[in-house]
């Protein structure tokens, strides 16, 4: 389909579109008026991770195309947790922890979106504002009558859980009803006409569209993005060392930069389109680079994404640290540091203390494989004592990509 609106053209050429509930209807609406659209984020941790970046960028693209982003913090739904395609129920969080997580997550959106009172300025709302005050019996009478249990059981997110004979609590089963109610509430409060989300949210989005139509006769729309995996099939945002967090408190800027610098060659073009504002012509040039030159494109990717999430200064510092560490053989200012007294520290313990390994046992295995260096020298004894005069630094490395500093004090 050839789109007439700037919004759907932008989303299409950048690779964001997987499913549309009514492509023609949304295209016509977006071509003639400002469309408020929302995505919800449940505050299950103090930070979102890279797996949420497609959705955050989707809101950014919405604003870039002249429309109004609505960021919905799931202070209400977060008390339940989205069961979509999960094997187990999420751990229930206290109201206090949820509030702390919401406050922490808010900060990252200010780098991606322009907030304010203007017609296309972004707003951030918390669904606890309306969900917490719902009364159970009136809610069942007003909203529950519009949901078919038969249909809810047919959605893949529920069906797969039941097919595997894994428990799905009544609490979790209510999540899709509450999310549908969110869309209806946002439509009434803010004129929201569009819900966006990952492909796993299709059923929840369709429920919200039908609820708005049945209760209010309002026409609203849905867009989902493709399931994003890396070229080797791994889930986006997950590494052997855990999630790639967006907040600085959960992951240093250098480690964040390195994640993007080390992506698979095959992912460079896709990630540049999804996660940067570079022009499509420039991206086409970068992804066409071959051999070692593709590393230049990866540095651009790492700089652009880190600048968006952490600021341009953090990106420049991370690149400088990488250059000092890899090219110059020096010690970059942004590497992780452990401080050690003159008594020293055992090599295996140092690997664990700096975060390279999860345990001393894992450290012992890595050292035995010849993967650990002090300075430029490969180490073989996990019990070796690392010592040095106060005020000196020694570079500790695991493989080619993990580097840190043992600092003697």
Describe this structure in words.
- This protein has 3 domains: 6-225, Rossmann fold (3-Layer(aba) Sandwich), CATH 3.40.50.620; 252-327, Tyrosyl-Transfer RNA Synthetase, CATH 1.10.240; 337-408, RNA-binding S4 domain (Structural Genomics Hypothetical 15.5 Kd Protein In mrcA-pckA Intergenic Region, Chain A, Roll), CATH 3.10.290.
- The longest helix is centred in the first third of the chain and has 18 residues, at 95-112.
- It has 409 residues and is of the alpha/beta class.
- Helix 11 links the parallel strand 5 and strand 6.
- Helix 10 (175-190) packs across helix 11 (202-216) and helix 12 (253-261) runs antiparallel to helix 15 (294-310).
- A 6-stranded mixed beta sheet has the order 1-6-5-2-3-4, with helices on both faces. The chain has a 5-stranded mixed beta sheet with strand order 9-15-14-11-12, covered by helices on one side. The protein has a two-stranded antiparallel sheet with strand order 7-8.
- It is globular.
- The mean pLDDT is 87.
- It starts with 5 loop residues before the first helix and ends with a strand.
- The chain is 45% helix and 14% strand.
- It has helices spanning 6-14, 23-32, 53-64, 95-112, 128-131, 136-142, 149-154, 156-163, 170-173, 175-190, 202-216, 253-261, 268-275, 280-287, 294-310, 312-327, 347-353, 360-368, and strands at residues 19-20, 36-41, 68-73, 123-126, 194-198, 221-225, 238-239, 242-243, 337-340, 345-346, 372-374, 377-378, 385-386, 393-398, 402-408.
């Amino acid at each position: 389909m050839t789109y007439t609106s700037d919004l759907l053209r932008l989303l299409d050429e950048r690779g964001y579109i997987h499913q549309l509930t009514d492509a023609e209807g949304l295209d016509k609406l977006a071509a003639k008026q400002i469309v408020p659209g929302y995505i919800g984020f449940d505050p299950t941790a103090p930070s979102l991770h890279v797996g949420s970046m497609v959705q955050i960028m989707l809101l950014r693209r919405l604003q870039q195309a002249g429309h109004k982003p609505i960021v919905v913090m799931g202070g209400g739904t977060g008390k339940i947790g989205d069961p979509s395609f999960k094997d187990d129920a999420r751990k229930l969080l206290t109201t206090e922890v949820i509030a702390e997580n919401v406050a922490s997550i808010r900060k990252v959106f200010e780098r991606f979106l322009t907030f304010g009172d203007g017609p296309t300025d972004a707003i951030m709302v918390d669904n606890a504002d309306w969900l917490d005050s719902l009364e159970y019996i009136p809610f069942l009478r007003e909203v529950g009558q519009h949901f078919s249990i038969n249909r809810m059981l047919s959605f893949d997110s529920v069906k797969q859980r039941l097919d595997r004979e894994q428990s799905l609590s009544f609490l979790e089963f209510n999540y899709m009803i509450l999310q549908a109610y969110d869309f209806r509430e946002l439509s009434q409060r803010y004129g929201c006409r569009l819900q966006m989300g990952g492909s796993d949210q299709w059923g929840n989005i369709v429920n919200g569209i039908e609820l708005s139509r049945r209760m209010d006769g309002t026409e609203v729309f849905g867009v989902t993005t493709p399931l994003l995996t890396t070229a080797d099939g791994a889930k986006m945002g997950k590494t052997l060392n855990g999630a790639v967090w967006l907040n600085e408190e959960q992951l240093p800027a250098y480690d964040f930069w390195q994640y993007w610098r080390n992506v698979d060659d095959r992912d460079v073009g896709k990630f540049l389109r999804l996660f940067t504002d570079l022009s499509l012509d420039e991206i086409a040039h970068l992804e066409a680079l071959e051999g070692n030159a593709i590393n230049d494109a990866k540095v651009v990717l790492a700089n652009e994404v880190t600048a968006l999430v952490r600021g341009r200064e953090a990106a420049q510092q991370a690149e400088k640290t990488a250059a000092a560490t890899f090219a110059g053989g020096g010690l970059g200012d942004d590497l992780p540091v452990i401080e050690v007294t003159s008594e020293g520290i055992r090599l295996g313990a140092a690997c664990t203390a700096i975060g390279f390994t999860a345990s001393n046992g894992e450290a012992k295995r890595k050292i035995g494989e010849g993967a650990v260096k002090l300075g430029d020298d490969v180490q073989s004894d996990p019990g070796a004592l690392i010592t040095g005069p106060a005020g000196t630094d020694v570079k500790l490395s695991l493989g080619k990509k993990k580097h840190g500093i043992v600092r003697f004090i």
